């Protein structure tokens, strides 16, 4: 779907709220906090900014953020789990402002972490930015996935196939999907006014995933570390505009 400048202005507002949730939650991440505290910070920002959560009650999800530590890829439920030195934690969250959605994720270190964990986070974030560069008018959408995959695999990592990015607007998840790998076809043309959430999930080991018994949490099948970075991006005449920073 092509969004008008007025619609994108609303999405920019939602994106700013998400960016503030990122900033405020990053600031509390340290050994000894619980993942529920991350959710509490997110709720405080949403409330203060008069925004609604697009995560809370989404198919019954019980929180405003997903918190996914270490080998958990996505969709972790905030709890009394205490983060410890050496963990990495992925935080995914969103906001609705005036009916329009923002969605973004980051992975952060908890205290001092291994060189491998640092490298995984750097590579995953770099793959996101390479993917974002592809969001130019006239380009083919699946060049995003090719770019993400090239960065991740050049580093010796794998890209998750079972969970993908998406268009976003008046719903959090709109068509088309945006794979983080080359799916074998070029996909639709990218047009000015399109808005996408690009979200590589990159694993140190293999790409296979397992959903846990809580019906939400998704972990790596081989137990290896996983990182997740995401932004919401509008395609403009001047190129990609990241709305969630
Ligand atoms: Mg997200
Ligand atoms: Mg998303």
The distinct bound ligands, ions and cofactors come out as: magnesium ion
Calculate the mean pLDDT score and round it: 98
The number of strands is 14
CATH topology descriptor: Creatine Amidinohydrolase
Domain count: 1
How are helices and strands ordered from N to C?
Answer: HHEEEEHHEEEEEEEEEE
Strand content: 25-35%
Distance between the termini: 22 Å
Largest sheet: 5 strands, antiparallel
User: What global shape is seen?
Assistant: globular
CATH class: Alpha Beta
- The assigned structural class equals alpha+beta
Q: What CATH architecture label applies?
A: Alpha-Beta Complex
Number of helices: 4
Assigned CATH superfamily: Creatinase/methionine aminopeptidase superfamily
Radius of gyration: 17 Å
Low confidence ranges: none
Helix proportion range: 25-40%
Widest beta sheet: strand line-up? 7-6-8-13-14
Q: Mind explaining what this structure looks like?
A:
It is a single chain. With 245 residues, the chain is α+β, with helices and mostly antiparallel strands. It has one domain (5-242): Creatine Amidinohydrolase, CATH 3.90.230.10. It contains four helices and 14 strands. It has a five-stranded antiparallel sheet. Strands 1-3-4 form a three-stranded antiparallel sheet. α1 packs across α2 and α3 runs antiparallel to α4. It is globular and about 45 Å long. The structure holds magnesium ion (2 copies). One magnesium ion binds next to β4.
